[in-house]
Amino acid sequence: MRDLNSTDLSGESLVGVNLQNLRFDFVDMSGANLTGADASFASFKFTDLRFAKLVGADLTGANLSNANLMYADLTNTNLTGASLHGADLRGADLGGVKVEGADLEGAIVDRESVKELRDYFGEVEIE
Fold first, then answer.
1. Best CA proximity match to 108, nearest among 81, 71, 63
2. Helix, strand, or coil here: 117?
3. Are 18 and 39 in contact (CB under 8 A)?
4. Which structural domain, as residue segments, surrounds residue 121?
5. Are the CB atoms for 24 and 41 separated by under 8 Å?
6. Overall pTM surpassing 0.85 (yes/no)
7. What is the structure's pLDDT at 110?
8. Looking at the 3D structure of the chain, how many domains does it have?
9. Which of 12, 99, 103, 107 has the most Cβ atoms closer than 10 angstroms to its Cβ?
10. Residues 6+ apart with CB under 8 A from 76
């Protein structure tokens, strides 16, 4: 797994880019555009993804543990089998998101962000 830890990618355009198996732990990706990117099995532990655009991105099996996804646009994103343990999803747009088999233990969401996560109410904190 290629290591891009602690890199500043804030505001960068990574539209449609192949990011499979890359490591973005502790990276500032706030406001980045990852629309349509393939980030399957990539690692985003403790990554700042506030206001990032991940529309239609493939994050299958990705590790987003403790990532900050506040106000991120995750519309139609594939999070199948991803780890969102402790991730902050408050204000995120989760319309059409796929979360089958995802780990949402300890994830923080608000009432507006849980429309697609109703099956997980017992596992997420509602503020």
1. 71
2. helix
3. no
4. 1-127
5. no
6. yes
7. 85
8. 1
9. 107
10. 55, 56, 95, 96, 97
